[in-house]
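discrete fold record:
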Amino acid sequence: MVAQDGSLAAGSIKIGKVVLGGELDQVPDAPVTLSAPVGDRDGTYPLRGRDDLVETLLALCRTGGEGRLQVLHGLGGCGKTAIALELVHRLLQRPAGIPARTVWWIDARHGVLLDSALRALAWQTGLGREQAGAAWVADALWERLSHAGQEWLLVVDNADDPRVLDGPGRLAAGTGWLRPHAAPSGLILITTRDGTPRLWGPSAMLHPVLPLCENAATQVLIDHAGPAAGSTRAAQALARRLGGLPLALRLAGAYLAEVNEMPGAFREPQTPTDFTSYREALDSSQSARLQPSQVVDETWRLSVEYLHKHGYPCAGTLLDLLATFADAPIPHTLLLRPAALNDVVGDLSRIGGAELWATLVELSTLGLLELRNPHDGLPAVSLHPLIRDASRARKRVADVAGLMGHAQQLEELGKPEEPQFWDAWEAVVPHALGLLGHARDTAGDASSRTVFASGAELAARYLRARGMLHEAAAQFKEIVAIRLAFWGPHDPETLASQQHLARVMHDLGDLDTARHIYQKVWHGTCELLGDQHEHTLIARHELGRFLHDTGDLVAARQHLSSVLDIHLRVRGADHAYTLTARHELARILHSEGQLQGAHSEYTSVLAARQRLLGNDHPRTLRTRHNLACVLHDLGRLEESLGELEAVLAARRQLLGEEHPAVLGTQYRVACVLRSQGESSRARAQFRLVQEIAERTLGEAHPHTRRAREAARELERPPPG
């Protein structure tokens, strides 16, 4: 029985600005929430001009809408999400004694998390672990929802690219993640910019969300601007000028409200203070009727000019910086540190924390950004896409590169494989990956390219750590291509990126690719740095680990014994690299059938790791798992099963249900059950491992094949 591996990358090995290393077994489910963001609905301002549409949706909730997908579509800033939130609010306002409707809310902007969200939904609908983790979970989910006894609403917000909803089939064909259903009082509501009928299919009912009519648009302006901003007639003229776009109306109203709270003696002479002067300011820059995006450009300009004149000279620069990041919440406490801004951004070389915060608050007050302070995540700044577009011509790529470089040195952004840093990395990853495109720019400066490539590499390590192996592999391939093009094949950072790529291909079971890269990296680092350099030893260890996994025990022992000898001499018996090399050599003893020797070595390594790391650290859990496998082969079945079940519980709590290490321990539990004659229980465990491994690792992956074959073996009738 082959136990689990011990990668040498237990610590942080730096080559330049690239960090080598990471734990293979820290790959939990991606974090998701299905709760509606009800806090984003501001009850101070009524939803204007959408009563008929909301009433239509309420009626569809009562009847199930014939099981069709209900699609709200319209341009950005027209209020699609606000309509969905209003619907949720009204559905949850039930009289006492009447059960509230169950509401689930999924944000579809980040397709990489959509799979996890929908599987979490399957779990919440009552599907068991096996079904929620199965490749055919979409079939089971919609069968379950179609026959649900309670009233429910599923909102899928920001599905601007309908293709992310194809899932296992095709959305338009009714075989995607979202499907027609038969629930009498369930409703699927989707918000999107794309209302193309062929993309949604015949099962969809399209509801266009148009700019507001003049009366409703006028009232929105008055709601936000207050009574001091002028007459209803003047508000009508400005509402007409803004094209009835809710976002532009809200920005203009917030601007006028802010201006009119200031004493008149403190205002600049040309500051617009009412609906008429605001409209005239718009007309002065462009007399023709503005398109929606141009409307936002002009309202953005007026608001920034106002802030510049009234003590916030950095407002425009901050917006330009924020607009250069990806279209995702921006963790400002990590990426906009005052010291980093002083060092990197010339326009902000003297800004302090108090001024920075005051400027962000004022930008929020004027509606140009949203400050978020969630209970379960990091504080963040969000920009509406149209506000982001208003700064598109002023992107500050070099400045953002400098800020990302500073962020990569923060203690809060430690190794992306370590669980204590996952919240921070979850917030930073969209920006690190989104900025990688600038590294391909041949006209860009070398220092920015280095930061973007290094940041994307750290982000890809996070993806691998969270179990998104295919996504991580795609990113590592792109990073390697960039490094080869700009740094060449003999650069230490290129070799580091290739090492990460080899690991993830190894994880995915692409052994031919992994073997080729492992050997190339070992020979490359040996030639470049010498055969006893720390990074060369890491490369040699990883090659030895791979050779063990592919059955070449003699070569594996030769590599790993040499590595261990050097680590003992240079770093000592308790160093993480030393213990990891000993752990890997114990695996070889186990594979050779030297069970007592393996038991003794694992016991010694376990004692050291428990002393240094604690009982539930991932590396300690790996050793406990492997020692339990040896107990199984020694025939000590009760001891083995008890320890494996304890490790399984600890790993699930730390890593999630679908981490490869969790599947590995679950597989070993099934093996012990089989040895105890518990064939039915063992077969169910093997099938569960097979289902999850097929979906997360692929049907051809070695872990999938071994679970499938074990289940089939138990299903065969006994001979004779």
Q: What stands out?
A: The longest helix spans residues 446-465. DSSP finds 32 helices and nine strands in the chain. Residues 7-29, 286-290 have pLDDT under 50 and may be disordered.
